[in-house]
């Protein structure tokens, strides 16, 4: 990637990385604020409804008592006494009275002394209650009352009593609406009757309209609904308060996210540099994986596998850095260090075990570098070993140029080194091409071993590879043998050597030696016991 593109991308990431958490924080604060105001509005609407329902219940109960006892003489002193008793015993009724032809003939307040003209009802409910919404009485002219009339008896209710709540927030609108008549029965502030339509068949509903968070709750008892409308300015100030808490957290999260992305990016971008530093500081080390003879289970050699211990202590596997070393012209230097380490680790053992072999991965670049033979001879000299002790593992990629491949393989073999074709079957080499090369071993790739006995389409391939190796006169080393069944299959089909977790994981050379010595001791003990 070009530098300007990388800078642009980083900038874009930084903006997105910081902007996104802030935007999410603002969204979240708005959501939380809306939720809180919805709950508040629902609370107000439900409270009003509880009061309105209780008022209706008290009115109905009082009227029923009067009707039962004094229907024949509704304005008698005994009836008026009962009216006063009902009045005093109720929490929401201001007075009880008796009405005929829109005139209140007597009441708990005025007794029989005054006849009061009420005018016709505003509407009559389906349950038969005549409702007068705004009645003024001469004895309380400054107040407006609701008069609920059932069968000529009436309950008088103070307008403000039901909506007497949230007095410190007078801009919150409150109302009791009838589902049978558009005008509000009781109202404080601005309430739209059409809000009832939003209720549909629901028990309650919350929405935003006309700059308010509106809650409408249906009565379970009467054909009425409680309504509360909280101005949106409350929501905004609440959302600001939440945002003041969340946005700094979002900002911190964003900065951390961007820092993490940039750190990761820097690590990724500078990985070739880190490999270079690693080579300079000699941070690479080897592990060795045993190669066993399948017929006897004896360890006949090892494959050297390189690892990278970063200054942080993290151990990086070759799949992550070999390709980087190859792409950045450092692989020859890495192979050089591998050869030095092999010489150092195996020197004493090889001197005493001339048949033992060490497999070394040779990259295509090593193969084409021209001085591979010289470097290998120097290694052998340092080890005090024979060329046959080393098996050079070359991938199909390393053999792609037929002229160089033929020349190099022949030359190396002439000097006594053994050659293996690694990961066979994963590249494109043709059988006829391989026939022209001088090789000793064919390493069967782990992917084909894995497939043995699975019934997968690739499970048959291993047998073709074995046939090819036999036709070419090559000895075989199966890679990635993990189960005894795989080992048995391979041995039965004539594969001589195996390598994999069944026989041993990659470990230090010292550990391999310790394992081999332990196996030798166990074998000797068995022989002694048998003899
Ligand atoms: N799942 C499974 N895996 C098993 C089993 N037995 C062995 N393996 C793994 O299979 C890989 C075998 O090495 P490879 O095919 O040469 O594949 C090697 C080789 O191509 C490359 N490599 C390793 N060391 C060097 C080196 O010194 N130079 C170069 N150029 N390449 C190297 O890196 C590749 C990966 O090496 P590792 O990660 O060490 O992975 C190793 C080994 O740990 C098993 O039973 N099951």
From TrEMBL:
Cellular component, GO annotation: plasma membrane
Coiled-coil segments: none
Protein origin, superkingdom: Bacteria
Membrane topology: Multi-pass membrane protein
Domain called EAL: residue spans: 268-520
First-level EC class: hydrolase
Keyword Transmembrane helix assigned: yes
Keywords (A to Z) from UniProt: c-di-GMP, Cell membrane, Hydrolase, Membrane, Transmembrane, Transmembrane helix
Cited Pfam families: CSS-motif, EAL
Annotated GO MF terms: cyclic-guanylate-specific phosphodiesterase activity
EC number: 3.1.4.52
Transmembrane region(s): 246-264
Subcellular location: Cell membrane
Record's catalysed reaction(s): 3',3'-c-di-GMP + H2O = 5'-phosphoguanylyl(3'->5')guanosine + H(+)
Alphabetical list of Gene3D superfamilies matching this protein: EAL domain (3.20.20.450)
The keyword Membrane appears for this protein: yes
Protein name from the UniProt record: cyclic-guanylate-specific phosphodiesterase
